[in-house]
Specification:
By secondary structure, this protein is an alpha/beta fold. The protein has 12 helices and 12 strands. The chain folds into 2 domains: 260 residues, Rossmann fold; 98 residues, Uridine Diphospho-n-acetylenolpyruvylglucosamine Reductase, domain 3. The strands form 2 sheets. The chain has a 7-stranded mixed sheet, with helices on both faces. A 5-stranded antiparallel sheet has the order 8-11-10-9-12. The two termini are 41 Å apart.
């Protein structure tokens, strides 16, 4: 993956140096000065303080695709910095996924926007189009590449925070997609506002619009600031589940409840509270189950004691299994409730020597009263659906 970093130190950075006045191909942008803070920006500032994010003496990366959501987030941050409400070094980051003929022009537009306000901008490119992906796998690959790029940019700039422009609409779509796939309460809790960008990373991924802003709000704010935003034709490609949810399922649900997006977000918050209450119990169970079992001699991965796991209710047990898989696998991509049920079923009497298949060729095996996770490819053909097989 190729990354290019263009550095422009401007009035809102930690180094208060002016950019040279001669900028090639500089677009004609409207004035950045507003008489007073807009309502959108006031809402962002309120959320910023609620999340206890740094207001000064920090480096922060904002991901800008050029779409309405990320552009609005960037413009609102610029407004707060210009008004002196925030005082930190803001770095704009944009990754060209190489999926569309016009994607290189999108990168240029984002770079020009950043240059106009004299912010640092980091541009990256990866050619995902040259690789064969099913639609949903392509979405995962693009997401993985994007977060790798953002993490690299944050480390390069010594930034502890990366911001993205996800909104309430994105949250609603995510919840419905996970519901359709049969996710547990953790999945239906939606996307967290703040989390480590990767497991155990000190860099925090923050979505400051997620709990309050609608997509229509970001579009309206861009228009208010008189800045155009880009439209990605892939957002109309209904081969992607998210697009079908957005264009077909959500409009149908809105015919029953006009505020379905907000309702789904509130439901996710309630489920998150329930899931959090069980998470501590699951953590303790996992540690105890690992203590009572030896490690896999080949992989070094901890085994789990079946007898210890069976002492607790299924809701706690499955959460412990989920955490165990996440630790050893590195992520939970494509892991659904149906996979956890398959692993849980291994603990039934008479299941010794059986295995449960997980996505990407990983398997869980029951041996001598323990569960063992292995990356060994047992089947010739991988399957995302779990199966119980004899050894």
């Amino acid at each position: 993956m190729a990354f290019v970093f263009y550095k422009h130190l401007g009035p809102y950075g930690t180094n208060n140096l002016r950019l040279q006045s001669t900028q090639p191909n500089k677009p004609d942008f409207p004035s950045s000065r507003l008489a007073r803070l807009s309502s959108f920006t006031k809402s962002l500032l309120k959320e910023w303080r609620w999340l206890a994010l740094p207001e000064s003496d920090a480096a922060i990366v904002v991901a800008v695709s050029g779409g309405a959501d990320s552009t609005a987030l960037f413009l609102a941050l610029q407004e707060l910095l210009e008004a002196g409400k925030l005082r930190f070094n803001l770095i704009v980051a944009h990754l060209d996924h190489g999926l569309r003929a016009s994607s290189s022009q999108d990168a240029k537009s984002v770079a020009q926007l950043a240059k106009h306000f004299r912010f640092d901008v980091a541009l990256g490119r990866v050619n995902l189009k040259s690789r064969k992906h099913a639609p949903e796998n392509l979405e995962q690959a693009a997401r993985k590449a994007r977060y790798e790029f953002l993490l690299k940019t944050a480390r390069q700039q010594r930034a502890d925070y990366v911001l993205t422009g996800h909104t309430l609409d994105d949250q609603a779509e995510t919840i419905l997609m996970r519901l359709l796939r049969g996710s547990a309460a953790e999945g239906l809790s939606g996307t967290p506002v703040v989390r480590p960008i990767t497991q155990n990373s000190k860099v925090q991924l923050v979505r400051p619009l997620l709990s309050w802003a609608r997509r229509s709000d970001t579009e309206d704010y861009c228009r208010q600031r008189q800045f155009d935003f880009l439209s990605d034709e892939m957002n109309d490609d209904e081969s992607f589940l998210r697009v079908r949810v957005r264009k077909q399922l959500l409009p149908l649900m809105q015919s029953f409840n006009k505020r379905i997006v907000e309702t789904l977000s509130r439901t996710a918050d309630l489920l998150n509270e329930d899931a959090s209450a069980l998470a501590d119990d699951a953590q303790r169970l996992l540690e105890e189950a690992m203590e009572k079992a030896s490690k896999n001699n080949e992989t070094g991965a901890p085994r789990l004691s079946v007898s210890v796991l069976l002492q607790r209710p299924a809701a706690v047990r499955r959460r412990a299994l989920r955490e165990w898989i996440a630790r050893e696998r590195g992520d939970l991509n494509r892991i659904e409730m149906v996979h956890l049920l398959a692993v849980d079923k291994l603990m039934e009497p008479g299941r010794g020597g059986r295995i449960a298949e997980l996505p990407d060729g990983m398997v869980v095996t029951r041996k001598r009263g323990t569960l063992e996770l292995s990356g060994k490819k047992v089947l010739k053909t991988r399957s995302s659906r779990p199966k119980i097989r004899g050894a």
